[in-house]
Amino acid sequence: MKKFIDIDFGSTRYDELVQLRYKILLEPLGLKFLDSFRDKESSYLHLGCVEGLDDKLVGGLVLAPVNDEEVRMMQVAVDTRYQGEGIGRDLVRYAEKRAKDSGFSKIVMHAMLSVVNFYEKIGYTQEGDIFEENGITFVKMVKNI
Ligand SMILES: CC(C)(COP(=O)(O)OP(=O)(O)OC[C@H]1O[C@@H](n2cnc3c(N)ncnc32)[C@H](O)[C@@H]1OP(=O)(O)O)[C@@H](O)C(=O)NCCC(=O)NCCS
Fold first, then answer.
1. d(Cα 39, Cα 57) in Å, to the nearest integer?
2. What is the distance between the alpha carbons of residues 60 and 90, in angstroms, rounded to a whole number?
3. Fewer CB atoms inside 10 A, N or C side of the chain?
4. What is the whole-number distance in angstroms between the Cα of residue 76 and the centre of ligand 1?
5. What's residue 139's pLDDT?
6. Ligand 1 pocket check for 87: Cβ under 6 Å
7. Which atom of ligand 1 is nearest to the CA of 77?
8. Ligand 1 proximity of 81 Cβ (cutoff 6 Å)
9. pTM higher than 0.70
């Protein structure tokens, strides 16, 4: 059975989440997880999905406050073997609940073009033009929660 959890910055789970993010998001693009990322993340909210008897971490994401109203969702990753089972959708829903509980009213994010449809299906809308960062094309997406 899958469960959605909050992950403490600096915990063993946090290290597992960093590994998962590296494997799913950074390694395929030839990017490294830099220690400077870690330094910035202490004030972020780290969320995950665990599955099975051993509570294996199969998905995760990060929420970074932008201001009192907005929070930025980043690094949404589901383990390759568990993709397409609804985990990404439920994880984003959990993040929306956690963001709302924390007093935020809007989620903003930069989605890779390849996953825009995934976010549209769960209520996010495109805002502004597409743009490039490190050779990857992104679009800003937003949702009021
Ligand atoms: C994108 C990602 C987070 C989606 O999570 P997931 O658990 O595989 O997706 P779900 O099973 O919850 O899918 C929910 C719906 O979105 C659709 N969907 C999933 N990935 C999609 C994609 N890349 N493009 C279009 N639709 C997609 C599913 O078909 C499903 O549709 P349905 O409700 O009509 O059946 C996951 O596949 C992933 O980690 N991909 C690699 C990393 C990545 O690109 N992250 C996004 C960074 S911006």
1. 22
2. 11
3. N
4. 10
5. 97
6. yes
7. 39
8. no
9. yes
